[in-house]
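For consistency, the fold was encoded as tokens, which produced the following:
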Amino acid sequence: MAPPRAAKRPKLEGSSSSAHAGAPQRGEDDYVPGNIVEIELCNFMTYDRLVCRPGPRLNLVVGPNGSGKSSLVCAIALALAADPAILGRASSVRAFVKRGEDSGHVKLSLRGDAPGRDICITRKIDTNNKSEWLLDGASVPKKDIIDVIKKFNIQINNLTQFLPQDRVCEFAKLTPIQLLEETEKAVGDPNLPVQHRLLIERSKELRVLEVTVKQKEQTLNNLKALNAEQEKDVQRVWQRDTLLKKAELMKKKLPWLKYDMKKLEFIKVQEEEKSFKMKMEEAAKIWQDAKAPIEELKKKKMTHASSTKKITNQINQNTNKRREVTDEEGQLSARLRTTFDDIEDLKRQERSRQQRISNARDALAAAEKELQDLQPYEPPRAEMAQLTDKIAQTTCGINELKLRRKEKERQLAQEKENLRKCSDRLKQMESKNNKLLQALERTGADKISEAYYWVQDNKNMFRAEVYGPVLLEVNIQNKTHAAYLENHVPNYVWKSFITQDASDRDLLVRQLKHYGIPVLNCVNNSFRCEPFNITLEMEQLGIKSRLDQEFEAPPAVKNVLITQASVDQSYIGTDQADQRADDVVKLGISDLWTPRNHYRWSRSRYGGHVSANVDSVYPSRLFMCDLNISDIERLRSENDELKKKVEGMEEALRELQKGQRKLEDEEAEIRKKKETIIDKVRFHKKRREEIQRRVGMALFLCSFTCSLYNILLFSLDIKRRTLEDISQEEDAESSTRKLTDQLAKLNDQRFRAVIKLKSLLVEAVALKWSSAEKNMAFIELDTKIWEMEKDVKKFEKDAVHAAKGYENCKRITQEHRQVLLKAKQHAESISVITEDLAKEFEKMPSTVEELEGAIQDTESEANSMLFLNQNVLQEYQNRQREIESISTKLEDDKVECERCCSEIETTKGKWLPTLRSLVLKINDTFSRNFQEMAVAGEVSLDEHGLDFSQYGILIKVKFRQTGQLQVLSAHHQSGGERSVSTILYLVSLQDLTNCPFRVVDEINQGMDPVNERKMFQQLVRAASQLNTPQCFLLTPKLLPDLEYSDACSILNIMNGPWIEKPAQAWSAGDCWRKVMSVEAGN
């Protein structure tokens, strides 16, 4: 960023005292309102950041081609709300954002009306074609910016004010009419263009009015003649219409007569309805009177039902009590039977006790005998120890074999994994994607495969789909077209990865940084591709397709190929197109592929001439690549060796399994022998345990170290005590006596229960008798009610029949009412009876038949009058109305024509003298400037009477002494001569302009040094005048030894890696010697 200027520019002499009336007043720093005070760019075209402060007069923007001079012009235009199309560079603002950035801005400071106050306009742009406007830092709509621009009369679309590099040639192509319009906007009275447009509109309007007046007068005469011829026929038509109107009047009475008839019928039906209503009310009264006694009987019936229900409840309670007494008696009977059973059990237990005493004595004798017969047993411990050692040795051998087998299995699994990986690599080498990755590696992308597999393994880390490398995403079948596409697209694109989200792009850039792989971000997939259409001219020249139509790819990938390589602008042709390549460029095609050559055409921005570049077509190295055979053979041999190794290890593993099974069989045999010995020991142990069980619980109290002999002695003692206990048990007779007493008590309780049951049965019989009486009374009431309801139903049937008759009559009355209402509505829709109409109706027949006959007679009389033209009256009346309408419009048009002529004369009296004076002043300055350059030129007004749309300004120049003055055009003058004429015309407008600044981009290109030097002197002289607006002249070079004045400011634009320090030295206003010392230091 350049620091502020060290000193204020000195004010030109007389700048405040000699200014003509109405000119803007210059401030202390020599700026006038609307001048550009400062330009700030950020991420705009070629600039990262730039701050520029132009001078108030002539600003010479100097710099080599491509350094960014025209970028400054584009920034001024876009900041002042210009359409990007007028710059001739791009159609949208996103093209002006610096490549690689998402957004940028342009800031323009204009001198305001108040001294020392600047107006700051900022436009922010981004790659989404969006713009944001700021006025003095506040966000505003674009309309507010346009209002500020109009306030200072800034016209970016006016070539006399704003002439960018890409539109210089357009100025020479301006017709005299267009030149006049641009000059009126740029200089002179601001009312001139308004008056000119008004005169053009009014002259067109006048011509239209004159033609309209003539046409209407002719039409009016023709219509009057036609009406005069048809007056007799019209009289007969009127007579016929009178008869038809009379018939129509009769027809109006006819529905009212029919309505009267319907009304009489309705009154009759209404009387019948009243009669049926009286009959229905009488039948309903008889029915209600018959229903009253039945209701009384029903109430009595309900009382009997309530009493019966109460008795029934008492019967149920009695039944429950009898059930309880019966259950109690049953329980007592069961207890009685149980007591008898207990007595029988005591008898059986006594017999059992005697038997157990006998058995105990026998068991004691047997135990004493077994104690005498028992022999001691010693288990074979030596043999058991020997077998245990053999089992341990065999188990160790088996465990060792298991370890060796486990190690072999681990080695086998590892070798199988190596075999699987080798097979996978071999398959990858032979797959399409791997071929393409190998092809990219051969072009320098050594780590493209690692990057590809990393992206495939980490897809879950991305928000949107990630594509790449681009080469793998493109599918193209034709080998020739594959060669075209590969040679057309830059190599960095093929190895790039494509993201669709900014965060995905940042993540992928960080991860792939050490791989050296580029990442492209596609924000919007809804790209607009140029429509594909092969015209007849293209087919004749051998053009058959377009490059973007010959391959398939995801939308994001195709968008990148279109934006980065413009594949939608490249066409494909046959050998015929190769032979007629000179004719292809005439169709506007800038890129063409043929089987042998690649043609590219470009158009110069300066002269417009076309240059061509022809390259040979090289075969595809990426799409049609071959496999690396040596690597594949190496992998195959490695795969075979691994297979053999795996087979050998599997055979060794099987041998180990056989040895393990043999040892396991030996171990099983030894264990079998050991089990036989153990079973024998268990048998003796079981026998000992059986004796212990016979001893009972005493065995568990004894120590296991006791001898078997002591155990048997203790068992004998237990048996003796058991025998004594059995002998001391209670006698059975005493128990029998106790049970007999209990039996007597139970019989007494059972007797009392039977007495209670008897009383309950007597009570139940009484309740049953009462219930039967109540039921009989209920049945009698029910029968009586049924008989009475039978009579009531007859009365109800009569009442219902009367009601149906009444409803039917009521329905008929309603239908007649509807018919009567419709008849009345129909009659009213035809006519509403007024006093006059009632008088007419009195004169007509009073019956329907007579009225219909009168209508028929009147219509017959009217129809007897025949006409050749049935529409004669309508045509006559239509023409009469048209005559009146045309007459009125004709008078209005004549008045409008006179008003238009008067307005044209008034406006012309104001506009034409002012325009002639303005053109005369321009001509004086233009001729004088040409004379100073030793050539001749003049500016004149081309007048065309009242045809104001054809008025124009003619610029005539002569650059040779022997030549004649000729109108400036591309056909008569060279490019340099047109440039001289253009800049001198612009200089001639300097004193007359009312715009704050003017921009001219590289107008001196194509001039010879002599004319360029003279032109520059004219510019410097014009810039030194008091009323000269601020001027920007952009040029890549200046001639040496030019004359400068204080009105000149030189803005150097340079770029390069070592320009920063010299730029700082220059911005401080230091001398060339210091700048050189800075350069030497670097």
